[in-house]
User: Fold these one by one.
Assistant:
Number 1:
Amino acid sequence: MNKANEIKTKILTWFDAKRILWMLVITGITILLIFDNDSVLYQRKLSREIRNLRDENQRLAREIRENQNLLQHFDRYDYLEKYARKIFYLRKKNEDIYLIKRPDSLQR
């Protein structure tokens, strides 16, 4: 019976050592995945920021193309006058401008 108790205690200590090892491994992986400087959460944050910056870059490139196109049209005086009347509601002397707002245009 003494031998049986020795074997039992060896098996239990082996399982305890294995359990402690697994707890250390799981704790280490958790620290690496969550709390490290190069953690998964930080990488996700950086990926989201990169995606937002790419979207903003595309939006700004589109605005630049539109503005360059607009500047090319501003070489002609008649287009410049038309644009100023439309955007800034400029008018000539003795001219009245009436603004008509439609219900569908208010939703924009």
Number 2:
Amino acid sequence: MRTLSSAELGVRVRKDKEKVIGESMTDEQVAAFLQARPYAGESLEQHILTRAYRGLRVQDFERFLAMFKAQGFDLDAADAQGNTFLHRISAHAQAQAYVEALKAAGAKS
């Protein structure tokens, strides 16, 4: 089976925009996750934490958590089912470092 090239698929790849993995984000880039807003009926804190968890490396997530708390957000806010964010991600196979970061930041359950 032949793999189609980007050109054959109609995908444009900009040569000046290479994907960079492992580079630290600025404080402004990390703080941008605090601006996320939930859909109707969703917990604000849960939504913000979920977006940051999905989008940040552990080192940046740790910095984010300090900003999150400084803005007065609650690490132990529950979702509609009564689960905290820490409880929700504890079962994720690759989440151990994030779980530890949450606990270090003061999340309790």
Number 3:
Amino acid sequence: MADPLPLLRTADQILAQFDNGQFLHDFLLEHQELVVAMHTHQMAHGGKAKGKVVITLDYILGKQLTITAEAEAKFTKPKTPKAAATLWTTADGDLTPQNPQQPSLPGIRDVTPTAQAMRT
């Protein structure tokens, strides 16, 4: 009796076939880099960090019932937030960092107390 054919029944078994396992190896490394990038992004910017992985498998079934297959993985890392600023406009079309409608108070000074050594 002949040995039964080895069947590929899980996604990792199928992905391990491409480039003699190199595709799956590279995929796992890039996946780890994505998770690190998401973690780093969340720690730096807060909120939710979004990432994405798309695996594409292209199959061509030939006349002899053989499948020629190609695999591709695309990773999308979180985007850095755009730089932001709040500026006001003047009637002359200029920009200013201060609200022109808010009067300035001359003579205002910082009265924050300086740090003093604790007595023991």
Number 4:
Amino acid sequence: MELTYVYATLTVMIVYFLIHAISRRVDPYSPVWLFLCGYLQVYVVQALSYHEWAITIRGTDVVTSANERALWALLLFLGVYHCGVPRLAAACLPTPPSRWKLNWVFVVVPPLLIWGLFCAVMVIRGGSVNGTDEISAEESLLRGFPVVMLVAANLLIVSSRAEGKSRPHLLAAGVGIAVLYVMLWMFNGRRSHALIGLLSASCAYYISRFKRPSWPVLISIGCTGALLVGLALGWRVKQVYYEHNVSGFLQFVSEFDPEFVLQCANMKEADNPEGKYVSKETEEYGGFLLMLDTVPERSDYDYGAPYIRMVSTFIPRIIWRDKPFFGREKWIQAWQAGSELKRADNFTGPAISLLGATQLNGGAVATVIAVSALAIILRASYEFFRRHQTSTWVQAWWALTYYNAWFMVVCDDPMTWFYYIWGFTCMPVLTLLWLVNRGREHAPALSGESTQRPWSPSYAHI
């Protein structure tokens, strides 16, 4: 019975995709697809792959309840996503600037590129892709802005077609920086950076040309992304067997087993030659089961405390010296109360996924609230992009934002992406470019007024 809900969840996704594919309404840069990719990985693939472990450790009732919640939460998300409210919300948002001052792009790109390279090189000089080297708090802070290099790349890519003019030199520079970013952070063993580099740069390229990749290209991008994740994670795991340099990395690539990609996608068990017991609770689905089994019976709700970090994170400790890490205490208490292993007070690491986070926030009620809010935010953001896609600022913003729909599903909580990386790296630059371009001629909404020809599928008006 517990697997019936998993298969039903998979069926909903397949039907949803087929409806859009048959009617030629698939926009790969709509956030719903990356949201569904994350949902598929956690609540279908992991639910099936780890089913035996889940039943043994958490019991049939908990597993059944978890799979049932995953089904109705998905239906709720899709219902709210298409209810019409997000489109009304998008219409109320400020109109972005339509013009693009290239001189400001040339001002901000060099320091962003230099800072991004500094972050990558400092990690490389540390000599460990596993992050075990000891560094000061100041150096750790300076290392924490790697994405600014990707911001620089995307600004150049969208600028290459700003205001309908072709600038091949900017395109070549932007693509080159994006490729360098992906390679550097794959060498540093950071799978997320490698993946978002590919997704973000490809999005910037296509939407700035009002095009979408063909199915063969889209499939190639997907396969490349999976390979990048496998290489980055494999290098991080097996780097101890190779020299930590370019030669060692190339040797690793030449010996790389493609089946490791299936392990990264949770579709194949990791190698375990000694036959040791391996808990699955540190995977996203396992974390969700732990929260469902533990909160609130053995540990309290956090009542949404982590979301306070969307504000508190940006208040320096020099001003608020005893600033707490909002929500972390309840998170640790839940792990200590329900984990298979002994968890210390400084325990960190495993993600609990979207539904694990909402269970910790307040159970089923919090799940309804959070999932509905995410559906409105994602669809309203996409509608804002669609209405103003001729604005170069909007193109840059969307290329640097849409991929976070995936992080909303698979991380500690659905807004981790904002206060962990995006708010520090992307938001300041985009805010500056909004301000310096403010007061210029406003971009027309998607109504045929533009002299450009935006990509406009029929479902833009559903």
